[in-house]
UniProtKB/TrEMBL annotation, chain A:
Region of interest: Disordered: 1-21
Phylogenetic classification of the source organism: Bacteria, Bacillati, Actinomycetota, Actinomycetes, Kitasatosporales
Protein name: Secreted protein
Automatic annotation (TrEMBL), chain B:
Species the sequence originates in: Kitasatospora phosalacinea
Region described as Disordered: spans on this chain: 422-452, 500-532
Compositional bias (Basic and acidic residues): 429-451
Protein name: Uncharacterized protein
Length: 397, 532
């Protein structure tokens, strides 16, 4: 368990650990943060993540397990690819970095790969990373590669621990390296994949910026596009390392993440403070699965569902591919007849009409609705007349 | 998504059944399509695992790679697929129409008559979803540059001759699939989405079986029914071993299936092959025979499990075709299919002429041409769909781009001048609210010949237009060319014939701003890096 830093916990932290129960804390990773930042209005996810609840187990116990998983083939291939990168002293990572910095190719630089205590708890690892980072940033000539460092980022009042694939430090600046398994085909990669990777890397850059600001004892600059001029500050361009074409030959591509960084910063700052979420929570609510001696959850699903329902969610169909509770929230949205089950855009289109039945009722009222019919309802009624007419003209029904 | 399709989705939620989004079928369906259900190996982009394909619903054929990491087996798989797909494609190249046209002689500049061939029909490939199309595109990209034994320098790993040919065809078909309204390569989810709305989101509609669950009760779902519950069952119901009861439509397989079924089956196959190789090395005839039996057994087992995860999707695709075939064909389909036939004919000719495979990246002029073509086709598609289908026209009416109504009064008027022309006023009663300011040019839908008009005044419930053309050359309009009172008319604010864009330069005249003329023929080295 890595809750040592919660020892003399402040009231919110104590409440969060009560919510989780005796289960070990799940730390937020960059992927989860990116998903959270994509749906900052979801209080349910924010609270569960802050409390470090195991959402996979929770979803399982609620009866709608998350469909996520990784194929053994993909895992094996990923490992193979990473081991390939480590060949020849990480030459594949260093070459593009040097090109960017305009350093001679033939100069042999020794690369330091410090031990970052991979077996320790996240808090310890984060301390160690911070120390190594400060040390490496102070050396203007050397090259240091931090292999799976641990970064700490404050999110809505609770700490999140992030583990980038690698960070390269040289000349007092560091560069985030993100290793992905999708290919760069003929010089371009799938934009959706690159976007997701950039959002993830932006979270790391933000954490490094905060670390550098902490180290220098200065506040984080207000402008998201400003380049930090502090020792150990991250470059705003990250290195994306992917297989080239159909081979397992790695290729490193610089990706500018300034935009994603700005978005992440804004979204994270918009997230409701955890203490507010906790204050709104009824007394006695907990997400404890009440595991028995064998580790099997014993908490009745109905009771658990009621606890989950105490925190409002902001469901959108995108949640299904990013959140473990996606299926659960969808079932709830369907049960309630909410229009958000049809997509995010639909909600905006229908204005104040929040349920399917309300919307259909507005559509059926035709033109004869009272003055209380707002613009969206009127448009819907007009659309319904057009649809009925067209279907009749087309001979359907 | 427009408000009309949102409305259809809302209705689908209430009915728990898919609702029509079209009154006619907007895509050409071949009499003899080839259905492909491709599967990809996880973790490696574009690595094929298996494909279930065929033109006969009753007898699909399965091809697969026993060890997805083995490049030789992958080559053999691609050759086997090529031997199915290429003959199917080629079979449409035999029957041709001869069209007479004229061409400018490059030397004399005179027009000379030429006879061009146009294939009477074109092939049609149908895959379950958009992922299937991108997988075929990746296969095309990874195979079209492969060197074969016939090449002067076959390299270390020559592939069977059919493989690069398959790659060129797949590249052509997936490229053509980007053209709006084209029908040579179609994804079933896209086809269904165009014609029906379900009570779930677009995102969930990408799952073929889940979206079909809004049309037909899925096999094995108790009690039989359609809608959200059926769709969720298809998405997530698992058996005692944790395997999905209805496998996903691919190309990615369910990770649980990979872990519990596929990986062990591949392992057993690998082991059997290893035993056979050892026995062959030891020249132990009895052991070789025994090992060969093991390999065959392991191979059959792999075939069985791969068939079990592709066959349900195969049936889903054909069920989708049944649904679509029940819709009457839209009027403009032959017109658009002719574009596909030209595309097919031209690629057939390029292959026959021995032209090199499509380059990795288009040069500036080709890219601009393709973009212009897609834009043009998009405009044409939108116009044709609106004319073919009252529901598509309703979308435009809702957007204020068209109005439909009844002619309540016709005021005969004439233009001033020495030879007055008919310029009658039509008073159209309509509930639509077009963005029609006075003076705006409008077009009468379904008019033969084309008829333009001009908005004179537009008030709620009534639009007055003045007809400007399509009434013959005389002083009095041709009989039937001016709608009588009581006639239903539709006017559009958009033109009914797409505009021609300015011609693009020849590749040799590419301006320097766009990289200048492309450098001769790109050398197409097949990197050993790609097939280590």
């Amino acid at each position: 368990m890595n809750v040592s830093h919660l020892g003399q916990a402040s009231p919110p932290l104590r409440r969060l650990s009560e919510l989780r129960g005796p289960a070990p804390q799940r730390s937020l990773d960059a992927r989860a943060l990116a998903a959270l930042a994509a749906n900052p209005g979801c209080r349910r996810r924010a609270l569960l993540d802050a409390a470090g609840v195991d959402k996979t187990a929770l979803a399982q116990q609620l009866g709608r397990p998350a469909p996520f998983g990784q194929s053994p083939f993909a895992i094996r291939r990923g490992l193979q690819f990473e081991s390939r990168l480590k060949r020849d002293g990480y030459a594949v990572l260093l070459a593009p970095l040097r090109r960017r910095l305009g350093l001679p190719e033939d100069e042999v630089a020794s690369l330091a790969v410090p031990d970052l205590l991979p077996a320790a708890s996240p808090a310890v690892r984060a301390e160690r990373t911070a120390a190594v980072l400060a040390e490496a940033a102070a050396d203007p000539a050397g090259w240091t590669l931090l292999d799976h460092p641990m970064l700490r980022l404050e999110v809505a009042g609770s700490p999140a621990y992030l583990e980038p694939d690698a960070v390269v430090v040289h000349a007092g600046r560091c560069t985030v390296v993100e290793i992905k398994s999708f290919p760069v085909l003929d010089g371009s990669a799938d934009p959706a994949n690159v976007g997701a990777a950039a959002r993830q890397a932006a979270v790391y850059v933000l954490a490094l910026q905060e670390a550098a600001a902490r180290l220098a004892g200065r506040p984080l600059s207000a402008g998201p596009y400003a380049v930090q001029e502090l020792p150990g500050a991250p470059e705003l361009t990250v290195l994306l390392v992917c297989p080239k074409d159909f081979s397992s030959q790695p290729v490193a591509v610089p990706v500018d993440v300034r935009r994603e960084l700005a978005v992440t910063r804004r979204q994270l700052s918009r997230m409701t403070r955890i203490d507010q979420l906790l204050a709104a929570l009824p007394e006695g609510v907990t997400f404890d699965l009440a595991r028995d001696a064998s580790g099997a959850p014993t908490r009745p699903a109905g009771e658990l569902a009621a606890a989950v329902a105490a925190v409002p969610a902001a469901y959108a169909p995108e949640c299904i591919s990013t959140c473990e509770l996606g299926f659960h929230c969808r079932a709830q949205a369907r049960c309630a007849g909410g229009v958000e089950q049809l997509g995010r855009g639909v909600r905006g289109e229908l204005g104040s009409l929040r349920t399917v039945e309300e919307a259909l009722a507005a559509a059926e009222q035709g033109g004869g609705g009272g003055p209380e019919l707002d613009e969206a309802a009127e448009r819907l009624a007009y659309a319904a007349r057009l649809r009925a007419g067209a279907l009749a003209a087309g001979g359907v029904r | 998504m427009s408000l009309l399709s949102t409305l259809a989705r809302l209705e689908a939620v209430r009915a728990q059944r898919a609702q029509p989004l079209a009154t006619v079928r907007h895509r050409h369906l071949s009499e003899r399509p080839m259905v492909l259900v491709p599967l990809a190996a996880a973790g490696e982009s574009g690595a094929p695992l298996a494909v279930l394909l065929g033109t006969d619903r009753e007898s699909p054929r399965l091809h697969f790679v026993p060890q997805p990491l083995n490049r030789t087996q992958r080559s053999e798989f691609l050759a086997a697929v090529a031997r199915e797909v290429v003959p199917y494609l080629a079979s449409f190249g035999d029957e041709v129409e001869l069209l007479e046209g004229s061409e400018k002689d490059p030397v004399s500049g005179e027009k000379v008559p030429v006879v061009r061939e146009l294939c009477a029909d074109a092939p049609q490939l149908i895959v379950p979803n958009a992922g299937g199309v991108s997988h075929l595109a990746l296969l095309g990209r990874s195979t079209r540059f492969r060197r074969t034994v016939e090449d002067p320098d076959p390299g270390e790993y020559p592939s069977p001759t059919e493989v690069p040919l398959l790659g060129r065809w797949l590249t052509h078909l997936t490229d053509r699939a980007q053209v709006p309204g084209s029908s040579m390569l179609l994804a079933m989810t896209g086809l269904l989405s165009r014609h029906w709305a379900t009570g779930q989101s677009n995102l969930e509609d990408q799952h073929l079986a889940a979206r079909l669950a809004w049309h037909l009760p899925p096999a094995g779902f108790e009690p039989p029914g359609t809608g959200a519950a059926a769709a969720e069952w298809v998405e997530s119901a698992r058996d005692g071993d944790g395997l999905l009861l209805h496998p996903p439509a691919g190309p990615a397989t369910d990770p649980k299936f990979d872990e519990r079924v596929l990986a062990p089956a591949i392992l057993r196959h690998d082991a059997a092959v290893a035993v056979r190789e050892r026995a062959e090395a030891a020249r132990d005839a009895a052991e070789v025979r025994r090992a060969a039996g093991l390999v065959e057994q392991a191979h059959a087992e792999l075939a069985r499990v791969l068939l079990s995860v592709t066959l349900p999707t195969w049936h889903d695709v054909w069920h989708g075709l049944d649904l679509l075939r029940a819709l009457p064909a839209a009027g403009h389909l032959p017109d658009r299919w002719e574009g596909d036939r030209w595309s097919f004919t031209m690629h057939r000719d390029r292959v026959a002429a021995g032209e090199p495979p499509q380059p990795r990246r288009d040069d500036a002029v080709t890219a601009a041409r393709k973009l212009a073509q897609r834009e043009r086709e998009q405009a044409r598609l939108e116009i044709q769909e609106a004319l073919d289908d009252p529901l598509a026209m309703a979308e435009r009416r809702l957007a204020g781009e068209a109005f439909a109504g009844e002619v309540v009064e016709v005021v005969p008027e004439w233009s001033a001048g020495r030879s007055p022309k008919p310029r009658p006023l039509l008073v159209v009663r309509t509930d639509d609210r077009p963005h029609a300011d006075p003076g705006r040019e409008v077009h009468r839908a379904h008019a033969e010949p084309a008829q333009r008009a001009e908005v004179v005044s537009a008030a709620p419930g009534e639009v007055v237009v003045r007809l400007l053309s399509g009434m013959g050359r005389r002083k009095d309009p041709e009989p039937g060319s001016v709608p009588e009172p009581g006639t239903a008319v539709v006017f559009t604010l958009f033109e009914l014939a797409p505009r021609q864009s300015a011609p693009l330069p020849e590749p040799a005249d590419t301006p320097w701003t766009h990289g200048g003329p492309p450098v001769a023929v790109e050398d197409v080295p097949v990197g050993a890096d790609e097939w280590e």
